[in-house]
Amino acid sequence: MLPSFNAKRKTENGKRSLILALDTSTDKGSLALMEGDRLLGEYSLHSPGTYLQHLLPAVEDLFQAAGRTLHHLEAIAVSQGPGNFTGLRIGLATAKGLAWALGCPLAAVPTLEALAAQVPCQPHDIAVLMDAKRQEVYLGLFKGPEELPTAQGEPQRLPVSDLPSLLRPPLLLTGPGLEAYGDFLKQHLSPEIAWAPPDLRHPQAATIARLGRLRLEQGLAVAPQQLTPAYLRPAL
Length: 236
Description:
By secondary structure, the chain is α/β, with parallel strands linked by helices. It has seven helices and eleven strands.
């Protein structure tokens, strides 16, 4: 049986429940610690090649800076992908190991959904693009989110050249794919399509924490042994 989770439950120190969130889905990873709706701290990790070496020490530093210990942790949320294969494996393995060791409930948050959630209250639909390499993108389409983005169909992996026929205004674009294929998109998409600000185009662990908490409140915890990355292509 999975551990239960209640965001209104008090911890021993009288605070609202503590959740750790990890995102290693892109080359700009992060981790965050939230207590209720309050962000206690967020760290950045800027190289997927060093996630294996630096992720767990960063978790330790984050707890120490916040004046908390792993003993206080009540839930874990992790970005499930799609994204960088190596980064996702390390992030999910770390989240699963901590969940097993601490007996914490675990929430898996789709990375495309998290990116859509970072541009809330949009009047138009949102298209999230991530670089899938080989001139391909991961595409997720969402209704302008409130607490949770509403996906319009399943995420896709497709050639960048297919996007002009799929993306029409009114629409907001976001995601790190805008950096990878920005020149092509500016040349071939309607100028009436809006672009999210650059600082919102990469997944942020604080967003993963917020969405993970909502999932757990809805009873959507995942058992560690059942958690797998959402690659959207065979792993290399």
